[in-house]
Fold this protein.
Amino acid sequence: MEWYQLVWSRFAEFDGRSRRQEYWMFSLFQFLIIFAGYVVGLALMAIGIGFVILGLCFIYSLISFIPSLSVSVRRLHDTGKSGWFLLVGLIPFIGGLVLIILMATDSDPGMNEYGPNPKFPEQPAMLAWSAGSYSPRPAVWPGGVSTFVGDKGFGFCSGCGNKLKDASPYCGSCGAQV
């Protein structure tokens, strides 16, 4: 329920990132609320108040459109994609499947252009590589603090941003030398 409330508290926030769990729990609650409303509405059609309940379900669907859209955009940001990728859903048959795959994809490790990884808010900013070169430049936290990732004191790989699991000189995820 806290994930559902979190989306409503950030209902018109289209910047930043949202975890898979936040997106899917909100989607589950949305489905259950609307499905239950329509079932109850259809069941009560015989006594005349079914139309009222169905109307309330429709109004709720309209009201929850913006929060659904914003959490979807933030979820795409978490995978490193632009929110405009939601338009892929307009492609018949394949579009919906592509969106489901994108929404189920794991987060970009570390910080990306949309902000820090919501899974690991304590993780420092990742290295941002200059375009066309391999010289690292510090990435900047939203607060303006420049840091480097990959120092042994931080415990994160400078190549992929994943948390280092042991004292090995190599990352267990990507194999980069730490």
In short: The chain has a mean pLDDT of 79. The CA atoms of residues 85 and 139 lie 25 Å apart. The chain has five helices and four strands. Helices lie at 2-9, 20-43, 50-63, 65-78, 94-104.
